Amino acid sequence: MQRNTFLKALACQIVAGGALLAGTTGAWAQVPVEVQFYYPVAVGGPIAKTIDGFAEGFMKENPGIKVTPIYAGTYQETIVKALTAHKSGTPPVTSVLLSTDMFTLIDEDAVVPFDNFIKTDDDKAWLAGFYKAFMMNSQTGGKTWGIPFQRSTVVMYWNKEAFKEAGLDPNKPPTNWAELKDAATKLTKKDASGKVTQWGVQIPSSGFPYWLFQTLTTPNDAILANDAGTQVKFDDPKVIDALQTWVDLGKAGIHPPGVVEWGTTPKDFFERKAAIIYTTTGNLTNIKANAKFDFGVGMIPGNKRKGSPTGGGNFYIFKKSTPAQQEAAFKFAKWVTQPERAAQWSMDTGYVAVSQAAYDTPTLKKYGADFPPALVARDQLPVSVAEFSTHDNQRVTKALNDGLQAALTGTKTPAQAMKDSQQEADRILRSYK
Fold this sequence. Notes:
Layout: H1 2-15, H2 21-29, E1 33-39, H3 47-61, E2 65-71, H4 75-87, E3 94-98, H5 102-107, E4 111-112, H6 121-128, H7 132-135, E5 139-140, E6 143-144, E7 147-159, H8 160-165, H9 177-187, E8 189-190, E9 196-202, H10 209-217, H11 237-251, H12 265-270, E10 274-280, H13 284-290, E11 295-298, E12 310-318, H14 323-336, H15 339-349, H16 356-359, H17 362-370, H18 376-379, H19 393-408, H20 414-429
Parallel strand pairs: 1-2, 1-3, 9-10
Antiparallel strand pairs: 3-12, 4-12, 5-6, 7-10, 7-11, 7-12, 8-9
Helix pairs in contact: 19-20
């Protein structure tokens, strides 16, 4: 309404011969470029506050741009909202979505590659500065579709007090499957009635079952999908063996039976209901703030090799926004991932800072020296693999998750569960081969 009034008034003044044209340029320049920014809140801690702070800091330095963070729920809810908005023609300008959503976003023709905005030597150096492990889920077909932001690997947390009580060395966590089983057996506690009060080990299987499963398939030297995202190997004997190992931990009575909640796993750790847990490094700050005991953070125990999947979210720029909005979103993504801010983000959240340059900042150097657990996820990057991702990722991932949960609840054997998941994934991916 105000804009129409302004235009009418302007027209009248021009008609009246008022030489205001030079003045109008200033009026137009004051209309900021609006950047709607969808952000998923998926893990604990005061993350939204940090994001608001980033938006405010950026706008202070870039008064011509207005960034509006919209907190859109979990990663799954955020991609659904973003794609629904894209289909109705009103997508966000930018969003942090899972790095594994890359193929889906390309298939939906929803995003533009970042290469479109890389113009200066500084831009090129910035793009080349990200850890290679994080670019595995960010680039395909010679283009960069996502920019690493809140990235992670899965790490193991252990309660050092529980280790001492069980007669284990609190500074020597399990480094392989045999040691993990042995430690978890000693760490499992029962009350007089035989009810377990402390599980030896807990690996969550809701929320992101496929991702936590990769902490077993990777050490067993199995890769779940090809780089092109067109083929999966769920029925590989090494994959079935990894699932059998997970199931066997439950059968041995040292891991909770059935499906274990992703969201409550850190809380189970604080409350001493689990002595060893696997979860994202993105929970590190949350655990540091809430665990009332000395704890350790270590790399995922190996078997045939060491390794963990990378994980977490990337910035994407949506296609149906205006060129000015896209440029503004690029500027924001570049600003947020500068070394000092990436370092601050890592300290505030526990996520891995996305570049070596961030770890070279005095702030993160000092933090890492004072709190070495903050460096574990980064140090695991050289043996990390891409997070599982394919075309039609939501449906293929669901086929895998359903199989995992069927095996963990005992409704199917690991071999049958993976065979069924393979058939369903092959059916979904047929048209992409």
